[in-house]
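no rush on this but wanted to send it before i forget. theres a chain ive been looking at and ive put its sequence and its fold in token form underneath. please have a look and point out which stretches look like helix strand or loop to you. thanks a lot i owe you, the record is right below:
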Amino acid sequence: MNGITCDILIVGTGLAGLYAAWRTSEDQKVVIISKASDPFANSWHAQGGIAAAIGRDDSPATHYDDTLKAGSGLSDPDAAIILVEEGKNLMQNMLDCGLRVDTQNGTPSLGLEGGHSRRRILHLDGDLSGRRTMEFLQENIQSKKNITAIPESEVIELITFEGRCTGAIIYHHDKDEVSYVGAGATLLATGGLSALYPRSTNPKYSIGDGVALAYEAGAALQDMEFIQFHPTAFCQPGERAFLISEAVRGEGAKLINNAGDPFLKKTGELDTRDVVARGIYKELQRSGEENVNLDLRHLDHSHIQQRFHSIYNYLANKGIHMTRDLIPVSPAAHYMIGGVKTDLSGRTTMPGLFAAGEVASTGVMGANRLASNSLLECIVFADRAIQTIHSEKTGIPLPYNEDYPFSYNSGEREKYQKLRKKVGKILNKHAGIIRNGKSLRKGISKITALKEHYSFQPDTYYFTKAEHAINNAMVILESALARSESRGVHYRSDCPISTTAFLAHSEIIYGNPVSFKRI
């Protein structure tokens, strides 16, 4: 089989992957794998911005307190300190390198979002923060001669040798062939899996391939029961769950039901996402309606149009005037809080394998992610992973000399799409915003039956994708069943309180039951 070797293999071209590539040194050979036809043209969906304690009335200590409060007792204190302190410095470095954030009177304009006690959300070009940050990184990466990008390709298996990750097997969609990349160190930066759910703010390909690859190779996963549902995604029949940024509520939008009444009287619109999403879910269960509404009719039109021009234009195309009409919204699967278990330097439990961004679980988010901490986490822990790879003696890149029979087999695409829908329905019904033990057991039984009865031709693309979807769904369900309490985004109606017995991170390794590691 053909292939190449490199010092660092980066899997994924989201923020964590591109930031990591930017921070590599010129003397290291780096390969980046991208599913996209243009390796620097992924979709960039983050609207709210990047949380950083740079305001005069703010401090990393206050940001730390807010992060821990949102995490419902499970946030790793050391990880949170690193996030807020190093995050502030790294963001300032990006500003010094030319990253342009929105300003007011010559200083950064800071937004407010749920769970934050200060205005600390940096935004770029209104609600295009993710896109503009990615463009900044692209411009800086494209001039680096040590980086080779492989587009229209994805990893289908991690290569291991004597318990160490030594690279990956790559399927090239544009060529319909496989090759290998041998690497001294492999960094997963593949994002989350929320698109497994039928209603999700994520692009359709975010089904947790990186999580599944690591899990199937023998690396530990952590806190997989914690799936965050964003409270306010656009809700209209036949339309995708377009995210309506939390920053909209930070600017004064109100949540009301279809009778025109506020219903979050005890918590308010700017509580943490888990609380607001559950509040909306309960209101929908009570009313039997499909949506509640965001009300911006009392807000200044010109300010809203300028601040949220991307959302404004999207809604206008759907026939909704953002400050004259009510915006129908409901929760949607948004963010995987758990992931591949790492230490604070990006090391997984498998030597040679690193992870950063949403695919990784450092413990910093605890049981619920604070709004706009995700992009900051990508930057901070991608930086730490690359610095660790630089400073440590990584493995010697090895060639892969074995045959690897593999084919695309497009005839199984429709069968896979049907399986994906079944997996999504199971997760939505049994591992949604509110769960219970009986329902979770039913979900596990249904996924087990799917695993036993689906028949895909081995050594094919859709066989691999089906395995990933089923394995990821199963670890979510098993982890949720094992945590017999409610905490953060994990709410069990049969165990509605948090208990000290579960002040612990869940952990699962392929072939083993869920265990817990006390914090």
